[in-house]
Known about the structure:
The chain has 239 residues and is α/β, with parallel strands linked by helices. Helix content is 51%, strand content 13%. The strands form two sheets. Strands 4-3-5-6-7 form a five-stranded parallel sheet, sandwiched between helices. The termini are close together.
Amino acid sequence: MAERDPVEVLREQLGRIEGLAGLHAEHEVFKQWLAETRGLLEQTFSTKSLHYQSFLALRFREVTVKAFASVEIDKLNAQRFRRDLENAKNILQGAIKELTVDRTLFRKIQTTPRSVETTLKGEYFIGTGVKDSSVLGAIQRTLEESGLSMVSTEQANSTSDSLGERIERIKRARVGIYDLSDPKNREVCIELGAALALGKTAIVTYQQGAALPEALKPVASIEYKDTNSLSNALKKMVK
């Protein structure tokens, strides 16, 4: 179980909300996010805090009894789901603001923790165009050993899906890996740009000797010599 800055983790959870909008309250990805976020707020602020209690009060559905299921009920539940996601966003923003203020104005009597123990999981996205199957396999194994799962059951690293479909998966993913070893691969550059514009966690990988554009230097990146060096570096970044 890793210790991380609660502000950083809350921002990650906040960043995942947009990708949850197309799901529903019974979806496994949403339920995992819900449980993780609830536990994080409890660790950071306690069960008696306003942030935790407000989050706990969110229902994410209007009618829970399946015997009453109908098209109209589904519409009501979908509306409530989206509305409560927006409420969750406001709660997390407030929590982040409180933590930030606590650190800057009240350093000597800080009441919130600087680190929390997390076992956050989620989904990952791999950008298209990785030609070396051993590199692709190393990325997948490392991410899955870290507790992440592929964002879609579709074939990884494929351009067969439309750009819109790939962007939807980028929205849902906790982290995206974008290999820029091939300078002719424009698709992955578009995907990386979308991820950065959405504020998603993106890691750029490239083989030793490949030139990384100057504009991407601030982005987390891994220059690798072989699959072992790639796996080791990636493992440290996603722990």
